[in-house]
Specification:
With 120 residues, the protein is of the alpha+beta class. Strands 1, 2, 3, 4 and 5 form a five-stranded mixed sheet that branches. Helix 1 crosses helix 2.
Length: 120
């Protein structure tokens, strides 16, 4: 029960967040959708000699974190050959943004240090 309730709901439970049982498969599907939209554009730029960056932003501190997103990214990229040169995950849920680099030189790692960026 929330601290500012008047007491008239004594013993009541208010559900504030819920997810389905299939949240990880939904996360993977969302990642595949994002890559399907973004990677062909980046691939075209790479063909012209450009360095490509993919930045995936999330702002959900209750249901996601950089490890879960990196795992979905790794699975979604597994059957693709059009990887960008650089991939960053951007946690923008708070005033202090954190950027993570889950892929370095084609290798995934969940042991990512974050880079702090002050929110503009």
């Amino acid at each position: 029960m929330h601290w500012n309730e008047s007491g008239r709901h004594d013993g009541a439970l208010f559900l504030s967040r819920t997810v389905g049982e299939d949240v990880e498969n939904l996360r993977l599907e969302r990642m595949r959708t994002a890559l399907k939209k973004k990677l062909p554009k980046l691939h075209d730029c790479a063909q012209e000699g450009d360095t490509t960056f993919l930045i995936l932003e999330w702002s959900d501190i209750a249901l996601s974190n950089h490890i879960l997103i990196a795992e979905a990214l790794e699975a979604a990229l597994a059957d693709r050959d059009d990887w960008p040169d650089y991939v960053f995950l951007a946690d923008t849920a708070t005033d202090q943004w954190h950027f993570f680099q889950p892929v370095i030189e084609g290798q995934f790692s969940n042991e990512m240090e974050y880079i702090d960026i002050e929110r503009p």
